[in-house]
TrEMBL record:
GO cellular component: extracellular region
Protein name: CLIP domain-containing serine protease
GO BP terms, alphabetized: protein maturation; proteolysis
Peptidase S1 domain residues: 106-366
Top-tier EC class: hydrolase
Lineage: Eukaryota, Metazoa, Ecdysozoa, Arthropoda, Hexapoda
Family the UniProt entry places it in: Belongs to the peptidase S1 family. CLIP subfamily.
Keywords: Calcium, Disulfide bond, Glycoprotein, Hydrolase, Metal-binding, Protease, Secreted, Serine protease, Signal, Zymogen
GO MF annotation, one: serine-type endopeptidase activity
UniProt-listed InterPro entries: CLIP, CLIP_sf, Peptidase_S1_PA, Peptidase_S1_PA_chymotrypsin, Peptidase_S1A, Ser/Thr_Proteases_Immune/Dev, Trypsin_dom, TRYPSIN_HIS
Family matches, as Pfam families: CLIP, Trypsin
Domain of life: Eukaryota
UniProt keyword Signal present: yes
């Protein structure tokens, strides 16, 4: 009887799930999704404050959902609200830019954010939207990885067009699958302090859409969408990143800090088995344009950023994400496109500016 009830409950959960989460209503009667509290950035950031108010704590308690003894972490009904009758939401947040894209209660959250991290190595589950693209070489069965991408919903990965172009596929092989939930490519299972992640998930590629104007001008429109053969189940190590419009971002300000992360894979080199990260800063477009003027023409659809020391996006992977942490969530700001003299502090790395392609993205995804 218990088993039947459990199966029924599971079916019920799966049916009502959006992506992988069950919908619920919070104490402000707002609809959200029932998730483990560390995955709920707005409420988790209240807990992380040194002095949450009684009202905030009561709000969190009353936000509990799906009470279960399976997990030591409580589930809460996650919305942008952090207190009774108040929302952190700006008017812009309420704009639903595409019903296919996750809202900020689902995307861009990072359990690792509140942990102290030293150096460049990422902690397990950090940047859980990062995927590796798997190529099948023409002469072998063993899959190889050269590029990365970012999961933007439960069906699509955004990457650089140059990673999946016909020219690249002719040289490197077809992109047949993506690997999600990866941390250390040398380890079968990733563990830290006795906690282990599930094994990475491999999903076949159903379709690749390269920007129509890629290739017409050198290094322009370096963006592509990969549609996965099936929907991805979100988990602590597999989550989507937010797009800028999800948090109402419309432009980049001077001084904007970004994080670029990856395994250091490019079409020609490979550097680290473990996902690494590096902080970089926005470079004024005019400055970047002048710097590159003798080599390539750059425009508003490019975004330049540089690190304080060598490293640059050589620590990222072609096609991987340049991310901004904005109002509690990670936003996909750029896609690693190219850089000259990788590692030289005198040449900022150039990224595809995701702000310029949000319309293209929403027009090219389907359920
Ligand atoms: C929220 O607002 C409604 C209507 O303004 C009010 O009746 C209710 O008591 C408020 N809830 C809390 C917990 O303050
Ligand atoms: C971070 O990366 C840079 C450049 O790759 C390297 O020089 C530095 O030693 C790294 N720092 C740590 C703490 O690993
Ligand atoms: C990655 O995995 C390999 C194989 O298990 C292990 O030897 C290595 O220490 C790991 N690297 C890190 C940084 O955890």
């Amino acid at each position: 009887m218990k088993v039947i009830a459990a199966v029924l409950l599971c079916l019920l959960i799966i049916r009502t799930a959006h992506g992988q989460y069950v919908s619920c209503t919070n104490p402000n009667q707002r609809t959200g999704y029932c998730v483990n509290i560390p995955l709920c950035v707005p409420l988790n950031s209240v807990l992380a404050k040194s002095n949450p108010t009684d009202s905030e704590m009561r709000f969190i308690r009353e936000s509990r959902c799906l009470v279960s003894d399976q997990s030591d972490l409580p589930f809460v009904c996650c919305t942008p609200d952090t207190d009774y009758n108040t929302t952190r939401a700006r008017p812009n947040d309420e704009v639903i830019h595409s019903t296919l894209l996750p809202d900020r209660s689902i995307c861009g959250g990072d359990i690792a954010y509140n942990q102290i991290t030293k150096g460049n190595e990422t902690v397990l589950t950090e940047f859980a939207w990062m995927v590796l693209l798997e190529y099948r070489p023409h002469d072998g069965q063993q899959l190889r990885t050269y590029c990365a991408g970012s999961l933007i919903n439960n069906r699509y990965v955004v990457t650089a067009a140059h990673c999946v172009s016909a020219a690249t596929r002719a040289r490197k092989g077809d992109v047949v699958s993506v690997r999600l939930g990866e941390h250390n490519t040398s380890a079968v299972v990733d563990c830290l302090n006795g906690r282990c992640l599930p094994e990475p998930v491999q999903i076949a590629v159903e379709e690749i859409r390269i920007h129509e104007s890629f290739g017409t001008r050198l290094f322009w429109n370096d963006i592509a969408l990969i549609r996965l053969a099936r929907e991805v189940a979100y988990s602590p190590s597999i989550r989507p990143v937010c797009l800028p419009s999800t948090v109402g971002l419309q432009n980049w300000q001077s001084g904007q800090a970004f994080t670029v992360a990856g395994w250091g894979r490019t079409l020609t080199s490979e550097s680290s088995p473990v996902k690494m990260k590096l902080r970089v800063t926005y470079v004024e477009p005019g400055l970047c344009r002048r710097k590159y003027a003798s080599i390539v023409v750059l425009g508003d659809s490019h975004l330049c950023a540089e690190g304080r020391s060598r490293g640059d996006s050589c620590d990222g992977d072609s096609g991987g994400p340049l991310m901004a942490f904005h109002e509690g969530v990670w936003v996909l700001g750029g896609i690693v496109s190219f850089g000259l003299n990788c590692g030289s502090r005198f040449w900022p790395a150039v990224y595809t500016n995701v702000l310029s392609y949000e319309t293209w993205i929403t027009q090219n995804i389907r359920p």
